[in-house]
Amino acid sequence: MSEIGILLVDDHPVVREGYRRLLERQPGYRVVAEAETASDAYRAYKAMKPTLVIMDLSLPGPSGLEGVRHIRQWDSRARILVFTMHQGAAYALKAFEAGASGYVTKSSAPEELVRSVAIVARGGQAVSADIAQELAAERLSGKRSPLDELGPREVEVLQLVASGMATEAIAKALNLSPKTIQNYHYGIKAKLGARNDAHLVWLAIAAGLIRPSGLPDNA
Question: What mean pLDDT do residues 87-111 have?
Fold first, then answer.
């Protein structure tokens, strides 16, 4: 196929530089734009119309889930490969629900990212080996994650609430009204059976949405 133009979305410049070098060593691969936030990714996608997007999930403000959803709302044919530290099957499923075409963890070998880019660029779906194993194990065990009860937008709101953002700040970040965020907040508590916000934080940590305070975030 012709040149694969890539939009690379990650909030760490050094990380982006490393992956840019990896990708541009492949024949026909070119990083045409970079972004640090979900909002910047949306604007860059509209401006550059890349072949595919490589999207981290842990971004400042709205997460990569919001970035995936927003881009897919503008272009239903957008090809987006999530590339993240989050290894849980539940998080991968939410990414696919939001519109992602692939999910690769940052613990995977570099070759796995390159392979997945090629698959997604052709219109296919790809997951890294560790996520494939997680998905298979979860299906066989029948166990459920708290995130199973929530839609992608609710997961986004839960992550922001659990990270300590105020209602008004979340509303501004997601371009929604404070009342809508309050309704989401109440609905999430009801669905998860959370007694209070502290319980919500605990559930978010258990689901891998946020890290316990004091731990480094290498997402």
Answer: 87
Query: Which domains does the chain possess?
Result: 4-140 (3.40.50.2300), 146-206 (1.10.10.10)
Q: Is-contact 84 56, C-beta < 8 A?
A: yes
Distance CA 55, CA 100 (A): 9
Residues 70-91: pLDDT tens digits?
A: 999 999 999 999 998 887 777 8
Burial string for 94-121 (b: 16+ CB within 10 Å, else e) reads bbbbbbbbbbbbbebeeebbebbbbbbb
From residue 36, alpha-carbon distances to 16, 41, 188 in Å are: 9, 7, 28
The per-residue DSSP string of the chain comes to ---EEEEEE-S-HHHHHHHHHHHHTSTTEEEEEEESSHHHHHHHHHHH--SEEEE-S--SSS-HHHHHHHHHHH-TT--EEEEES---HHHHHHHHHHT-SEEEETTS-HHHHHHHHHHHHTT--EE-HHHHHHHHHHHHH----GGGGS-HHHHHHHHHHHTT--HHHHHHHHT--HHHHHHHHHHHHHHHT-SSHHHHHHHHHHTTSSPPTTS----
**Paired strand residues for 15:** none
* 51 closest CA partner among 26, 77, 73, 16: 77
User: Residue 163 — very low, low, confident or very high, per pLDDT cuts 50/70/90?
Assistant: confident
